[in-house]
Amino acid sequence: MKLVLLGAPGAGKGTQAVFLKERHGLAHISTGDILRHNLNQGTPLGLEAKKYMDKGELVPDEVVMQMIGERLDSLKPDEGFMLDGFPRTVKQAEFLESKTKIDGVIMFTVSDDDIVKRLLNRAVCRSCGAITNWDNDKCPSCGGELYRRADDNEETIRSRLKVFHEQTEALIEFYKARKLLLEVDATGMPEEIFERVIGLLSHDKN
Ligand code: ADP
Ligand code: ZN
For ligand 1, what atom is nearest to the CA of residue 31? Predict the structure, then answer.
């Protein structure tokens, strides 16, 4: 199965990807994670990307397309995957279409107000990378130390939402036209949302 996870920042793509990975054994390809990894390692790609990420803007299409192209080429033939954070522009979607055939696009919908609340409350575990929130003082999975992502501040969150509405939302029509769009209400607890995702995917197969 080859899936695209679509939705505003903070819609819960990364959290659902972890569930989907467990259940379906799909590779989780997150552009944000790959970019942050490059940033931490201080690679040229990371240094270039940082300028945009700090402001909540998109990293240029060419940079991200090259990065994802290499990752897709490294998969085993027929290996299933989920793309999380890619595509984010129509240009990126066209590139993806030229590389491979996607089975479905799950669109997670949440209101902007909820997104801001969620991102301001988002905490990430330094040890295991789990996504949690500041209602906890340490990681619920491993007890590790929590940190706030550099782009999870109100100003950057507003820019990321603006970019989502201006550029990424166009992909809804793009994938609707190709009959690939599966919409899921992404409000509520992660487990409830996952039940909805499972329902959608099983329904989609028949
Ligand atoms: P979120 O979805 O919560 O905003 P991500 O971790 O997916 O977080 O992305 C963080 C940042 O990385 C984005 O704000 C953007 O600067 C950059 N980025 C991630 N994916 C892409 C992409 N497909 N195209 C351009 N920039 C990207
Ligand atoms: Zn942890």
Answer: 20
